[in-house]
What does this fold into?
Amino acid sequence: MPPILILGSGPAGAATAIGLHRLGHPVAVISEWRRFAAVEGVSQRVLDGLRHAGLNHAMACTAPPSQRRVNWNGSESAQNVEFILDRPLFDQGLRQDLHDAGIQVLEDRVLGVESDATGHHIRLESGQHLHTPFLVEARGRQAPLNQKAGKARRGPETLSLLSRWQGARGPVASAVQSLVDGWAWMARLADGRCYWQLTLDVASSALPPKEQLLDYCRERRQRSELSQAFFGGQPEQDLELHARSSTPILCLEACGENWIRVGDAAMAVDPLSGNGIFQSLSSALQAPAVINTLLRAPQRAELAKRFHQRRVEQLFLRFARVGRDFYAEERQWAEQPFWQARRAWPDTVPSHAPADFEALRIERAPVLRDGLVDEAEVVVSPDQPLGIWHLQGLELAPWLRRLRSEPQAQVLAALPEQQRRIFQGWLLSQGYRPR
Ligand code: FAD
It folds into this structure.
């Protein structure tokens, strides 16, 4: 086995594997296939992220863009464009990308991982036992949280019930609708496969026993005018139901000296607004440089761990706050437990801090340089607490420092024209007013 083993071949595991491979690290992936067929909706920036990560087959599996109807707070809009992704096809695309990159994928189920000073011992369903000095945990929400990284921050406990059936052929479409006790997302593929996903609060919803959930969801669907109109009241053939947790979870220790958690294993977000794959790719795209540092520049291990942890936390919190604001926009049932819990979590910090030039600070912080985590001066703002190092190739901190001690015209004159424009644009966006 190569010295780095990745558990899980979802978008996070696959992106980390290809990133490590590009940095010259031999890697292997162990994964089983997902046990249920779902569809998910992604935005254009996910497609860009997949391309950037070298996951071209996976990217090509998405359906053409379709309009997403949004019925929220009693009003209807159709401004969002969504790309519907058939997860089994997408997962096959990810495997194909790994294969094309020459990365070995072992199809097996991980039964247990035990870690000691020499590394990690992995027990597989096939009976094999493997040992690896470095482990990447990318098993998504199934990754156990019981080892060193046992600590986690959880949002309101949430359950998603996905109904799936075969309907009539028609155009690809999706819609989202708020309900008194949660929200529903629905999608239809061109071949007539239909999906309706009900997301509820675990603490307050009075659900029937497991064997009655399928009928319960059908009955709720029939009561919804929007879903009746969306699916056209066609017969539902081969109806199936799959329940899964969708509680937001942030792992408070996502990286050690010889292991790292990426994707949903590091932070799993609320499925609202379909941002999960984007978030999982974001944490996975930074991971190869973090691992590279831990292995090739171990003297910077603390810096690398801090870099990964802070980014994972910031991504998670920023998204959680945006989600909170979206939940708060639904005011028809503001006092219902589902909505009450979600418009108060994770905190009251604004999702975007207003620009304030006087609040900008220059700090030393971890950055990525040449495939390694390094330290550099960055500009920290209330809205960018991790700091900005470069803006389109322009290193910000030295120019901000000069601006604070030299006449503005002199500083701007010292910059080549294109960089001057970038710097001026950024200054204005930070609330700077020329004197
Ligand atoms: P995963 O994609 O979960 O991949 C983990 C891999 O590990 C899988 O291949 C799995 O089979 C494998 N694995 C797990 N356990 C084992 C084991 N023991 N042994 C071997 N292999 C194992 N995101 C969106 O962008 N849009 C959406 O519309 C959307 N809807 C969602 C709806 C719900 C209800 C939920 C819960 C999530 C949704 N997401 C959505 C989030 C999205 O599914 C995840 O964020 C994303 O798949 C995470 O990628 P990952 O690579 O971290 O994990």
About this structure: The CA atoms of residues 21 and 27 lie 7 Å apart. The pocket of flavin-adenine dinucleotide is lined by residues 8-13, 30-34, 40-42, 91, 109-110, 138-140, 142, 160, 244, 246, 263-265, 271, 274-278, 280 (CB under 6 Å). DSSP finds twelve helices and 24 strands in the chain.
